[in-house]
Amino acid sequence: MRAGIGRALIALIGALMLVVLAAGAQAEMKPINPLAAEGAAPPSAFAAPSTAQQSPGAFGGIFGWVLRTQQSLQRDLTTGVKSLKAGNAVGGDVMLAVFSFIYGVVHAVGPGHGKTIISSYVVANEETVRRGVIISFIAAGLQALSAIALVGILAFALNGSGLQINAWSNQLEMVSYALIALVGLWLLTTQLIRLYRRGRESRAAEAHETGHHHHHDHHAHTHHDHAEGEACNHMVDARELAGPFDWRKILAVVFSVGIRPCTGAILVLVFALTQGVFWAGVAATFAMALGTAITVAALATLALGSRELALKLGGRSGAFADGVWMICALGGSALIFLFGATLFAASLGPARPF
Amino acid sequence: MSPWELAKCRRVLTAVLAITACVGLARDARAHPHVWATVRSEIILDANRQITGVRHAWTFDEMYSAMAVQGLDTNGDGVFSAEELKPLTEVNIKSLKEFDYFTFVHIGDADNLPLKPPENSSLDYDKSVLTLHFTLPLETPVNAHGQEVQVDVYDPSFFVAFGFATEAPVKLSGPAIKGCAAEIEKPDPDSEEDAKALSESFFSQLGPNSSFGSQFAQTVMVKCGDAPS
To answer: Tens-digit pLDDT profile for chain A (354 aa)?
Structure first.
């Protein structure tokens, strides 16, 4: 089991690194990239002469590099959509899919793609790596569908304005954050109830036990200093706090994260729509979701790996394992609640101009 | 160390490890830009070489531009006229107020100087990119003679990445600009101070009051020497 987790973890991280490296290399080699050059060939279809290019030195350092990569990816997406419009079907297709995928991987590192929520959830619950990966993929898929539905209905069918799309996207975002907070609260409450019940049961059991064997020292009852490894057999296995596998919990998490459309996907969809190739935007959105899912799944796996590591470090100490489970279960749920509540509060702020 | 103390140490270690496992992941929730705006600014000076305001021209990236003008070609002629873009201009300018127009004028570490509502605002759409023009007057003109006036342009929440244009990013205008200079300072996000800001930005960055984006501030320094005779 542990070996399985390790292997999955390494594979995922490896894949992620490769993609990020590829993105970096792509950004570096841009001038000699044949696809990019091809896309840029018709000057009329490319940027207008007045298009001001930001100076490359505008952002320095490592973060500057990440930013420049993102910016160049966004430009590549623009070029990809345009070359499709220009009738360059094969090249445009491949280019758009690849860049959308990379954009998804890189983009998901930013907020709003549910990686914190999903990671916290899998750590707080007795989830496996496989389920963590499935959850990440379903959530990313839902986010893609949400963006497609939003743009499809508002812009494609109703010819709504960008401002309307923004307003709807903000509403969905707000609902998503509120739901996340509620899900966190629900998880935390059920775990606290379980903790309270177990505490009572174990106290009852303890009283029962001491009642039978230790009549004489009932008042000198400060024990808890028995040898390591013996553990407190009257204490609960805190693992149970995390709770068993439950589809309702998973659906709640996936839905609360998934209804929020990805802003990046909305931008690509609307751009594709204005270029008359809406379907290409839809394809790009799914490619993007795949990238997002991989990043989120990798992080969730990493979170699970950390928990396993923490459990392992405790050796055979039952109390140690109990502590890890308790902190993960309660801390993870509390984090989901706090995160949702903070984001919700922030989303109540003034509307953004752009 | 008594066994009890040892157990306590281990418990603390457990807590630290588990918290790292559970919470550590949340730290990468960094803001990232969705909109890229190329900045061209004009610093306006009066006859006494006081700065009276800043005139901005912000050109948005193609993708955001397409999004912003979507559905606004009301007469369907394929051209986005100033008339058609007027409602959008109004919304943009109005909502910019809550964000201090993303423009922060100050001297040294002193407080930002108050700005008046924008004037002469307009949007133009040139083939594929949207540019927002507006003038931000200072409530009270500030003397640029003998002191450096700093104009920062950034979105604190970093949803919009502002960057100065490669060519002609900033210029001075007015009747007495001789001996005055406007220079651009590059941000240094890897500096120690900013690294600290980064690690503090976990929850704080999420709100509208966060200052995560300040490390990417685009800065113009304006200073006038002695007037040429």
So the answer is: 455 555 554 555 555 544 444 443 333 333 333 333 333 333 333 333 344 566 555 565 666 676 677 778 888 888 888 878 777 767 777 888 888 898 888 877 766 678 888 999 988 888 888 888 999 999 999 999 999 999 999 988 888 888 888 888 888 989 999 999 999 999 999 888 888 887 787 777 767 655 555 444 444 444 444 444 444 444 456 666 666 778 888 999 999 999 999 888 999 999 888 888 888 889 999 999 999 999 999 989 998 888 888 888 877 777 888 888 888 888 889 989 988 888 888 788 788 888
Angstrom distance (rounded) from CA A226 to CA A211: 19
Q: Assess: ipTM above 0.90.
A: no
- Whether the model clears a pTM of 0.80, i.e. scores above it, the answer is no
The candidate with the shortest Cα–Cα distance to A206, out of A184, A188, A224, is A224
Q: A292-324 burial by CB neighbour count: b if 16+ within 10 A, else e?
A: bbbbbbbbbbbbbbbbbebbeebeebbbbbbbb
CA–CA min distance B22, chain A (Å) = 6
Q: Are A327 and A311 in contact (CB under 8 A)?
A: no
Closest CA to B27 of B207, B203, B211: B203
Scanning every residue of chain A, which has its alpha carbon at the shortest distance from the alpha carbon of B88? A163
Q: Touching check for B79 and chain A: CB below 8 Å?
A: no
CB < 8 Å & 24+ apart, contacts of A10-14: A12/A294, A12/A297, A12/A298, A12/A301, A13/A298, A13/A302
- Concatenated DSSP letters of A57-118: GGS-HHHHHHHHHHHHHHHHHHHHHHHHHTT-HHHHHHHHHHHHHHHHHHHTTSSSSSHHHH
CA distance A272 to chain B (A): 9
Q: Do A162 and B71 touch (CB under 8 A)?
A: yes
Nearest to B60 among A273, A306, A354 (CB): A354
Q: Print burial letters for A250-264: b (CB count within 10 Å at least 16), e (below 16).
A: bebbbbbbbbbbbbb
Dihedral sign, CA of A175, A180, A185, A187?
Answer: positive
Backbone phi, psi, residue A65, to 5°: -65, -45
Q: What angle do CA A79, B68, A95 make, to 5 degrees?
A: 15
Nearest CB among A62, A159, A342 relative to B203 is that of A342
β-pair partners for B19:
none
* Secondary structure class of B68 (helix, strand, coil): helix
